[in-house]
Inverse folding.
């Protein structure tokens, strides 16, 4: 019984890692958000493929998202994922929780060939998905992000905090997944500046940090939960006019997880975007 | 035979007048606009989209290194400073200056 519950908690923790952390828009890094928004009345159609492994847990997610520019500095979006979770006891799959997101760019400093910006982000994952894959909670993420973009060099930094809601089970148990803090630093380099209509490539290197509080069942903390992990994530962003492909891999470089837990093995993300 | 040649010459003349006559009177105007914040082509797409929505605009090109947007359109095309300030702001960039280049005659 306790083992099953533990498995459920591990599963929910990993599921919630995949979801709600992807708040990247447009010309942002792959694993972390940047301050980019859409032009006013513009649409972004976004498709995403994600896969990660942690011990014997393997998670994959395909998501589609639609975003809309309310102004030149404010964008809103909706995301619908389809998730597949595999572990030693089998495979679960289904439509995951719908997420609503917004980003407001509150500061912009434009110079010749340079744009320096800062934005706040918010995302809410609504308890709406298939019970097999849903975390069964409505979780909220708030964050701040800064970006410097020039024709040659890029740099971004962001901080996000996710508030996880308590989940009540039919048997009266209450599970509180630990809140999470994400910190990201990213550098980017464009080897060649091409004409507007030509293809454009930017290489990325991200440093992604995650700190998680312990999970608690009926207000009693689980020893084997929570802790911190850092990843180095090389990636590439390829664009042509209004179409973009981004991909990258997260490689764990430091783990300090509480108790006995499997470290993350890797995470891969591929994103396709169209601006319309 | 003579009549046939005369008729052929007349047809060629009319066709030539139609082709060259119709383009000789078509003119277009060109604007060179300076804007700041142009750091990537993908992000600049919004500028093209906003300009192409304006009646009379035929082509938009963006020179990232020079921070210039070149807009070509019909002779009657006319921009105002407030209009361009709003357009660039809505696209996520900062408008600086505008220069109307001399009207160019096509062909």
């Amino acid at each position: 019984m306790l083992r099953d519950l533990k498995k459920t908690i591990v599963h929910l923790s990993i599921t919630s890692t995949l979801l709600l952390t992807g708040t990247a828009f447009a010309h942002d890094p792959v694993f972390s958000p940047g301050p980019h928004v859409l032009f006013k009345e513009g649409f972004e159609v976004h498709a995403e493929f994600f896969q990660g492994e942690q011990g014997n847990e393997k998670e994959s997610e395909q998501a589609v998202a639609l975003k809309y520019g309310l102004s030149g500095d404010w964008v809103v979006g909706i995301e619908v994922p389809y998730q597949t979770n595999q572990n030693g006891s089998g495979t679960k799959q289904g439509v995951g929780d719908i997420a609503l997101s917004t980003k407001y760019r509150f500061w912009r400093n434009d110079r010749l060939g340079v744009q320096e910006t800062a934005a706040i982000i918010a995302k809410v994952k609504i308890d709406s998905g298939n019970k097999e894959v849903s975390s069964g909670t409505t979780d909220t993420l708030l964050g701040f992000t800064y970006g410097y973009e020039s024709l040659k060099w890029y740099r971004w930094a962001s901080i996000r905090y996710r508030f996880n809601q308590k989940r009540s089970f039919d048997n009266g148990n209450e599970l509180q997944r630990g809140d999470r803090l994400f910190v990201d630093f990213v550098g980017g380099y464009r080897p060649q500046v091409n004409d507007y209509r030509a293809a454009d490539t930017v290489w990325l290197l991200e440093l992604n940090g995650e700190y998680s509080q312990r999970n608690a069942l009926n207000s009693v903390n689980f020893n084997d939960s929570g802790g911190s992990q850092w990843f180095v994530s090389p990636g590439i962003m390829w664009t042509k006019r209004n179409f973009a492909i981004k991909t990258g891999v997260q490689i764990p470089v430091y783990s300090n997880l509480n108790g006995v837990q499997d470290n993350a093995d890797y995470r891969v993300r591929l994103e396709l975007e169209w601006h319309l | 035979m003579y009549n046939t040649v005369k008729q052929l010459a007349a047809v060629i003349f009319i066709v030539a007048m139609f082709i060259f006559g119709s383009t000789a009177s078509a003119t277009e105007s060109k604007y060179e606009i300076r804007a700041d914040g142009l750091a990537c082509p993908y992000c600049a797409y919004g500028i093209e989209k906003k300009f192409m929505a304006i009646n009379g605009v035929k082509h938009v090109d963006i020179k990232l290194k020079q921070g210039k947007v070149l807009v070509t359109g019909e002779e009657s095309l006319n921009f105002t400073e407030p209009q361009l300030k709003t357009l660039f702001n809505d696209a996520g960039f900062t408008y600086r200056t505008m220069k109307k280049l001399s009207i160019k005659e096509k062909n």
Notes: The interface with chain B takes residues 26-27, 36-42, 69, 71-73, 105, 108, 110-115, 149-151, 190, 193-198, 200, 202, 239, 241-242, 244, 275 of chain A (CB under 8 Å). DSSP finds one helix and 17 strands in chain A. The two ends of chain A are 51 Å apart (CA to CA). Residues 163 and 190 of chain A are 36 Å apart (CA to CA).
